[in-house]
TrEMBL record:
Residues 22-105 form the Cytochrome c domain. It comes from the Bacteria. Residues 1-23 form the signal peptide. Keywords: Electron transport, Heme, Iron, Metal-binding, Signal, Transport. PROSITE patterns: CYTC. This is C-type cytochrome. It comes from Occallatibacter riparius. One of its GO terms (molecular function) is electron transfer activity. Pfam families: Cytochrome_CBB3 (PF13442). SUPFAM superfamilies: Cytochrome c.
């Protein structure tokens, strides 16, 4: 086996070991699957459902002043038209998706 093939093999091996973990727990993946329909692909609530429910964009001052823990509480227990994710997502998935959502506030 030449060096190039060996390196390619190692890279493949490393990737296949890491990929399932990413697919499960990545905040971006959870956000896209569960949150983007209402909060918009980039957190601006510019989707149809987001507009219909008057969801605030992540850049709104009221949203920006919320702490990570407050957002986790809203996502876990729900608020107004926002569904509760307790039991539907793991605590780690909720935290990861909220952290991803918060990256849009900047
Ligand atoms: C069915 C539409 C819907 C989905 C899906 C949804 N949300 Fe919301 N979300 C809302 C609405 C509506 C509010 C405003 C609630 C209020 O203030 O009465 C809200 C509020 C929030 C807030 C509080 C700050 C703000 O923007 O007002 C956070 C944080 C949040 N959502 C995160 C999430 C996360 C994370 C997910 C995915 C796990 C998610 N949401 C999925 C509709 C949704």
């Amino acid at each position: 086996m030449n060096t190039k093939a060996r390196v390619a093999g190692l890279v493949l091996l490393a990737f296949s070991a890491v990929a399932p973990v990413l697919a499960q727990d990545s905040g971006a993946d959870v956000y896209k699957a569960k949150c983007a329909s209402c909060h918009g692909a980039t957190g601006l609530a510019d989707s149809g459902a987001g507009k219909a429910m008057k969801v605030k964009p992540a850049t709104d001052p009221d949203v920006k002043k919320m702490t990570l823990d407050e957002m986790i509480a809203v996502t876990t227990d729900g608020k107004g038209k926002m569904p509760a994710y307790k039991g539907k997502l793991t605590d780690a998935q909720i935290k990861a998706s909220v952290e991803f959502y918060r990256t849009f506030a900047k």
